[in-house]
């Protein structure tokens, strides 16, 4: 079992690396230029010890210094240092450009994927966890990628270049370096295996924590109203404790890298110093060459420290990248058919033919549902919680697709038309309001960006929102925060109703649209709705049965099936389930 997990982990890590390379390929020019600048930087950096050694050899004895030669070499050193600085600057610019363009591409692709993910994914995953993937994980990925580009290439080239320069000076001393070097690779490889697992767990736990925080902030009133603060703190402490433990393990393993490689590096330096000194005593190399060798020994071992640190950061980056790539790799909603047509302005007849649907395969919800709605009819859907009322709305709007059967609008299967054209024929007001950060005008004109001020005001007057909007500091130009800011729930709902009033499409869906409005305003809204629904097919989901008396057809649902159907008066006369529901709401007090 453990071996299978290791194979799966290695396979997943390899796929993540290949995906990262796919994003890098687009910016190969920056990558190539960065490598060239890294090579130039390393070459000149390694050339400086040779010049330093030559200067030392020109300091023959006290009073015996070849100053012309020294000044000539110092000029070369000044030019080399200036070119190195310029090359490093260009390399950093290329790495920054490449990293943040890749991060931009990843975030854009992730956000585009969220826009086309099926609703079942959004419903089945914590919103905070999804946000954590797009924000925190991508930031961690960017940090690791930038460090990798900046230090990894330079480190590898430094190691190879140093070996080349040392071989040109003395083969035997270089051999000592090469023999000890594999220890660093073995240490780094061992630690890398441990850190990836820990960083992946850290990233997942961080996402869980973000989800809890987002959930609590969004529902703080409910938490405080039910004195649930202690339980919430316990849940947060539990996640925070797990995050602490996996973070400490990740940091512990990653922190082993530096001291372990430094130990190996000191062995290399000691080996070079002893071997080089013996050769210098025998006259095999000059003092300047020995100085050059010791400098190279430091420069050769330094990249191993950097690369070991980079490997740790890359493990963290790959763990975070794997999570964001999982999101990007999720199956999108079933796309529109290639030959899908645009649904023009419809009359509004809707037919549901032998529809089957369930959110969970082994738990039936809607079975063999049939309904025929003529254009302009008002259809009310009532029933106990969980009977499938909102599910019918989800299917009409194609938020979910039916599993069997068909839904037709004006005789056309809605799976044969584009989602955008289908939804543009519906006006929808839900129980849950949604307002974006911006002006009140921006929120009203979402469905009709080209609407005039006169049309906006007329719609607001119809929905009875105009009076409270005019009392706002800047009227229709008042800026409201996320989800309506400090507006009351009723005011938010009025703005959502105004939004639909402005568009007036041929079909309407009102899902508990007046649930957050006081009784006096509700009476006005019902009159406005009556005007709005004239000649338009309307689906009304309601718990308060007083709001649907004027409906042409009332569907009484239970367990995903229509058990009663008819007008308000007809259903009361039948004395069935609807009559029981209605009387339970309006029975006289005893």
How do the strands and helices of this protein lay out in sequence?
Layout: H1 2-25, H2 28-58, E1 59-61, E2 64-65, H3 67-116, H4 119-124, H5 127-169, H6 171-180, H7 182-218, H8 220-225, H9 229-281, H10 287-328, E3 350-357, E4 366-373, E5 378-382, H11 389-396, E6 404-409, E7 412-413, H12 419-423, E8 426-429, E9 438-439, H13 440-444, H14 453-462, H15 466-470, E10 479-480, H16 489-503, E11 507-511, H17 519-533, E12 537-541, E13 553-558, E14 561-566, H18 568-574, H19 577-586
Briefly summarize what is shown.
The chain is an alpha/beta fold. It has helices at residues 2-25, 28-58, 67-116, 119-124, 127-169, 171-180, 182-218, 220-225, 229-281, 287-328, 389-396, 419-423, 440-444, 453-462, 466-470, 489-503, 519-533, 568-574, 577-586; strands at residues 59-61, 64-65, 350-357, 366-373, 378-382, 404-409, 412-413, 426-429, 438-439, 479-480, 507-511, 537-541, 553-558, 561-566.
């Amino acid at each position: 079992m453990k071996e299978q997990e290791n194979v799966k982990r290695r396979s997943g890590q390899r796929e993540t690396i290949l995906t990262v390379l796919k994003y890098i390929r687009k910016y190969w020019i920056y990558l190539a230029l960065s490598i060239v600048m890294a090579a130039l930087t390393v070459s000149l950096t390694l050339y400086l010890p040779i010049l330093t050694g030559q200067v030392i050899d020109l300091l023959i004895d006290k009073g015996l210094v070849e100053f012309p030669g020294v000044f000539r070499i110092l000029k070369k050193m000044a030019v080399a240092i200036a070119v190195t600085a310029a090359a490093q600057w260009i390399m950093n610019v290329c790495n920054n450009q490449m990293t943040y363009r890749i991060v931009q591409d990843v975030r854009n692709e992730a956000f585009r994927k969220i826009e086309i993910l099926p609703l079942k994914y959004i419903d089945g995953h914590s919103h905070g966890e999804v946000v954590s993937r797009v924000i925190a994980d991508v930031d961690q990925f960017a940090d690791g990628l930038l460090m990798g580009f900046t230090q990894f290439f330079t480190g590898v080239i430094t190691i190879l270049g140093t070996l080349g320069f040392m071989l040109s000076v003395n083969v035997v001393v270089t051999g000592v370096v090469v023999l000890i070097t594999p220890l660093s690779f073995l240490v780094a490889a061992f630690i890398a295996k441990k850190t990836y697992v820990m960083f992946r767990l850290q990233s997942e736990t961080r996402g869980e924590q973000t989800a809890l925080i987002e959930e609590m902030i969004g529902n703080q009133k409910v938490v405080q109203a039910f004195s649930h603060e202690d339980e919430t703190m316990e849940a947060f402490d539990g996640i925070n404790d797990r995050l602490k433990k996996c973070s400490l393990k990740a940091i512990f393993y990653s922190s082993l890298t530096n001291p372990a490689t430094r130990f190996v590096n000191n062995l290399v330096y000691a080996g070079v110093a002893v071997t080089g000194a013996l050769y210098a005593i025998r006259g095999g190399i000059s003092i300047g060459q020995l100085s050059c060798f010791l400098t190279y020994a430091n420069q050769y071992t330094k990249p191993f420290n950097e690369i070991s640190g980079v490997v740790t950061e890359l493990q963290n980056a790959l763990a975070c990248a794997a999570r964001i790539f999982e999101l990007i790799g999720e199956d999108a909603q079933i796309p529109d058919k290639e030959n899908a047509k645009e649904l023009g302005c419809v009359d509004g007849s809707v037919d549901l033919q032998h529809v089957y649907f369930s959110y969970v395969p082994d738990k039936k919800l809607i079975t063999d549902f049939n309904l025929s709605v003529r254009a302009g009819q008002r259809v009310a859907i009532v029933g106990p919680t969980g009977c499938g009322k909102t599910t019918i709305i989800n299917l009409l709007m194609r938020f979910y697709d039916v599993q069997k059967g068909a839904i037709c609008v004006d005789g056309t299967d809605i799976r044969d038309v584009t989602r955008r054209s289908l939804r543009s024929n519906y006006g929808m007001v839900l129980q849950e309001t949604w307002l974006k950060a911006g002006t009140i005008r921006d929120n009203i004109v979402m469905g009709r960006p080209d609407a005039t001020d006169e049309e906006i005001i007329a719609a607001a007057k119809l929905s009875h929102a105009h009076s409270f909007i005019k009392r706002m500091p800047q009227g229709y130009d008042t800026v409201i925060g996320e989800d309506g800011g400090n507006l009351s729930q009723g005011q938010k709902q009025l703005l959502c109703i105004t939004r639909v009033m402005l568009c007036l499409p041929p079909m309407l869906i009102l899902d508990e649209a007046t649930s957050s409005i006081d009784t006096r305003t509700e009476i006005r809204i019902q009159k406005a709705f009556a005007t709005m629904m004239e000649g338009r097919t309307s689906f009304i989901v309601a718990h308060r049965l007083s709001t649907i008396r004027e409906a042409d057809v009332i569907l009484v649902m239970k367990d995903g099936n229509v058990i009663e159907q008819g007008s308000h008066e007809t259903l009361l006369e039948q004395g069935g389930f609807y009559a029981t529901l209605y009387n339970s709401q309006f029975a006289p007090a005893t």
